[in-house]
Amino acid sequence: MGVFDPPGTTYIPGLRENLYGRFTVNLGVYVPEVGGALGHEAKPTVHDYDCCIRTRLGRGAEKELWWEISGGEAVIADITERLLNEAFSLFRRFESRDQILNEFLSETDNTPIMAVPRIVCAIILLNRGEREEAGRLLSAQARDHARPGHRSYVVGLAKRLGIEITP
Asked: Taking a C-beta distance cutoff of 8 angstroms, is the pair 56, 27 a contact?
């Protein structure tokens, strides 16, 4: 849902839009062992921000899609079509851990639909018993990223996962 901005907010088309009375549809693929390791334990309702694969319905559109709440039948038809064509294909694309690993194992940086793919893949591999490969990915992640605090975060995560790494 779009937020209700305080009175006096300046809107600039293309930069800061007024989204009040509009909504968008977020999509996500939740992998329990990844969520658990990253502090996003599964609850009865899993939110997109707890998912390791995240996108938004219509993301390939020229402009981010936000629908009017009062859009009626046309909005329902558009969202239904997009769910059938985009959402379900995304879910089929990542319905197994093998598919996730096949797509992201060689990624070294964030992608449009996954942040820190080496960490996600390392956790999946660790849960399969592939400790050495998981450690290699976490070491590479710690070594290759210069963002302040990221290296120590990865080292701490590896330690919590029971893996010693050398960044």
From this structure: yes
The CA–CA distances, whole Å, from 116 to 12, 14, 64, 142 equal 32, 28, 23, 11
Instruction: Please tell me the pTM assigned to this model.
Output: 0.85
Quick: pLDDT tens for 36-56. 999 888 888 999 999 999 999
Q: Where exactly are the structural domains of the chain?
A: 26-93, 97-160
Task: Tell me the C-alpha distance between 40 and 130, whole Å.
Answer: 22
CB of 67 within 8 A of CB of 61?
no
| 22 band by pLDDT with thresholds 50, 70 and 90 | confident
Helix axes 150-160, 131-144, angle to 10 degrees: 160
- Those residues whose C-beta lies under 8 Å from the C-beta of residue 65, and which sit 6 or more positions away, are 24, 56, 57, 58
